[in-house]
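Hey, resending since the last one bounced:
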Amino acid sequence: MTRFANLLFVALAVLSFYSVSTDIVTYTVTFGPCVQNVTCPQGNPARFNGTFILNGTISPKLVLNVGDRLTFNLATDVPIHPLTICRNSPIPKFCQGSNGTDELNIPITHAGDTTSVTFTTAGSYFYGCNFHTGMGSFINVTNPSSSKKHQGIRHKLFPLA
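The structure tokens again:
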């Protein structure tokens, strides 16, 4: 029994050393105006001149770590602009037309709706309107290096340039 307890202790110590810390990253999302060729994301339809705004920043690029849980809390109704988190989306679609395994959440459209995704793999992801191009941005998910396990990049906003 002692040998089993020692083995279990070692296994748990190794697991905790290699585990990825998880942050819950939450953004309040609104939908607002943007200026074509200035603050609107690439491909934004001129008839809308609008896009998603996260914590007051127009369509920012997000940088997260593997293991982070991204949560969007929708603060406004967007019935014709379902907010979607996806992968494999060609630019400037930002989730326009995504479905099946490329769609990582249930799109949300009503004030008070919440959606979340936990990223388990590093890579490029997107968020945006499921119906229209140019209404979203990038989510870059990185593997923190083992030496910087607890100091990795955490939920940073980068305005679109």
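Helices lie at 2-18.

Sorry for the duplicate.
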